[in-house]
Structure formats: C-alpha cells, structure tokens
Design a protein that fits this description.
There is one protein chain. With 154 residues, this protein is mainly α. Helix content is 75%, strand content 0%. Helix 2 packs across helix 6. The radius of gyration is 15 Å and the shape is globular. It starts with 7 loop residues before the first helix and ends with a helix. This is superoxide dismutase. InterPro entries: Globin, Globin-like_sf, Globin/Proto, Globin_lamprey/hagfish.
Amino acid sequence: SCTMSLSEAEVQSARGAWEKIYVDAEDNGTAVLVRMFTEHPDTKSYFTHFKGMDSAEEMKQSEQVRGHGKKVFSAINDMVQHLDNSEAFLGIVTPLGKKHATQLKIDPKNFRIICDIILQLMEEKFGGDCKASFEKVTNEICTHLNNIYKEEGW
C-alpha cells in the first residue's frame, strides 16, 4: 500500500517524539546498535568489522558502530520528515529496502529489532507517551520494508 495510515495529529506527535531522540543522533544511534548486537549477537554477522567486538564498551567506542548508528538515525529522520507525503517517504524507504534485500542480504526481521530497541530507548529516556506516539511510525517503516522484500523475492 502506498498510503500512510497516520493522521496529521499523529504525524506531528511522532515528529515531536523523534526530535527528542534525534538531538543526540550519534550517541542514541550507537546505543541502539550496541543493544542490538549485545541482545541479538547473530545480527553482528552482517557487519564484518564488528564481528570481533564482544564488549558493549568496545562497540560504543568503535568509529564504525558510531558511524552506522548515525546513518540509521539519519535514514529514519528522512522518513520522519516525509510522513505526510507517501511518495517522498517511499522514495527513501524503497531504495533502502532494495539495497538491504539484494546487496546486503539482511534478514528483514532485523528492522523490527532495531525499531523495537528505538521504542525501548524512547520509553526509558522520555516515557511511555513518547514511545506510543512513535510506535505507528515504526510499524509503517517495517511494513513498507517487508513489502519491498516480498517484491524482491524474500
């Protein structure tokens, strides 16, 4: 489906919630990845240069982990800016999904893992309302990514 299921009010509150965590994009993006690699060690296998890192502290200091954390947050930020324009939103999600499906061959369940960890972090830092207002956005993102994966034959 090409239409976003968010009302104007939901878009506004989701943006407000996202802004809080995006202020520290690199640190929060890093925290999300470190938690993912720690709680789901199999996800590290996709990142050849993270494979040897076992301690969370080591990952936190890694330029590559920090760089990728920031990249993930930047991509989501681009999506959040276009929640009210499904064409522009899909213009960001589609190439990202295709690249992860075809070139990187990342299991799509990892998108849900990352989104859930972002929601956890939002709740820990800013409370349940913040998390609740961003939940629909993560569902949108994951739904669209899963659709792209299906189109790519996953």
